[in-house]
Amino acid sequence: METSPTACDIEVFFDGGCHLCLREVTMLRRWDKRGKIRFTDIDAAGFQPESLGKTRTELMDQMHGRLPDGTWIRGVEVFRRLYHAVGFGPLVAISRLPLISHTLDLGYLLFAKNRLRLTGRCRSETCTIKGPL
After folding, report:
1. d(Cα 121, Cα 17) in Å, to the nearest integer?
2. Other Cβ atoms closer than 10 A to 45
3. Model confidence pLDDT, tens digit, residues 84-117
4. What is the layout of strands, in order, in the sheet containing 64-66?
5. Burial of 47 by CB count in 10 Å (0-12 exposed, 13-18 middle, 19+ buried)?
6. Burial 51-80 (b: 16+ CB within 10 A, else e)
7. From 28, 57, 62, 106, which residue has the greatest number of CB atoms within 10 Å?
């Protein structure tokens, strides 16, 4: 498994066991005509988060992306980079406006904290309360 992004704008680390995540990844793959995104399924057999200096829990807690220079990004910024890579730059620009940006950040944090429960994948070890937002 290759561990550093090359010839792409972003490498996205997604939960292939999440049907909502897979739906979005499938759509992005279809739109990524120029191969600007590298998709890495963190739920795939053999995936080793330690090789990235991350834990499985860390990667499952929220969306992660890695830029070509090795910089890690998380949350809504990953989505912005993904949508920019497939040609939705104007939409990305709107998402950076202060009120919209804060609303998206808060909405994503709420979703990420409850994603396993919302997608029917809640187990005792994955859905324990970790503390306040």
Report:
1. 9
2. 5
3. 999 999 999 999 999 999 999 999 888 888 877 7
4. 37-41, 10-14, 64-66, 72-74
5. middle
6. ebebeeeebbebbbbbeeeeeebbbbbbbb
7. 28
Two structure tokens written together for 121? 């994948």
**Tokens at 108, concatenated:** 């994503």
CB 81 within 8 A of CB 9: yes
User: In the chain, which ranges are continuous DSSP H helix?
Assistant: 19-31, 56-61, 76-85, 89-95, 98-118
Report the pLDDT value the prediction gives residue 2, as an integer from 0 to 100: 42
Tens digit of each residue's pLDDT (9 = 90 or more) over 16-58: 988 888 999 999 999 999 999 999 999 999 999 999 999 998 9
CA angle (98, 100, 104) in 5-degree steps: 115
Q: How confident is the model at residue 70 (pLDDT cuts 50, 70, 90)?
A: very high
| All domains in the chain, ordered by first residue | 10-118 (3.40.30)
What single letter denotes the amino acid at residue 133?
A: L
